[in-house]
Amino acid sequence: MPDIMQACNGMSAEYLFQKDKQYDTSYDTGDKAIQCGRRNDIFKLWLMWRAKVSHRTNERLSVT
């Protein structure tokens, strides 16, 4: 399962997950989480856009 999460969500952001830590970096799970990256931000934007566009489209259809 972790390999699937890495493949789907991994952004390989070296600026976030640097290897020069005082601990074993293999325990860092940040690159496997959906919160790491911009995908969740764009998804929220898409949902908002989708809701607004469908709301306006329904208003236009009911007027005509």
Describe this structure in words.
52% of the residues lie in helices and 0% in strands. It has helices spanning 2-9, 39-63. It has one domain (2-63). It has 64 residues and is mostly helical. It has 2 helices and no strands. The mean pLDDT is 71.
Rg (CA only): 19 Å
Task: Report the β-strand fraction as a percent range.
Answer: under 5%
Number of helices: 2
Q: Count of DSSP E strands?
A: 0
GO molecular function, one term: carboxy-lyase activity
GO biological process, one term: carboxylic acid metabolic process
Keywords: Decarboxylase, Lyase, Pyridoxal phosphate
InterPro entries: PyrdxlP-dep_de-COase (IPR002129), PyrdxlP-dep_Trfase (IPR015424), PyrdxlP-dep_Trfase_major (IPR015421)
Summed up, what is this model?
Pfam families: Pyridoxal_deC (PF00282). It is rod-shaped and about 65 Å long. The mean pLDDT is 71.
Keywords:
64 residues, pyridoxal phosphate binding, mainly alpha, single chain
Topology of helices and strands:
Blueprint: H1 2-9, H2 39-63
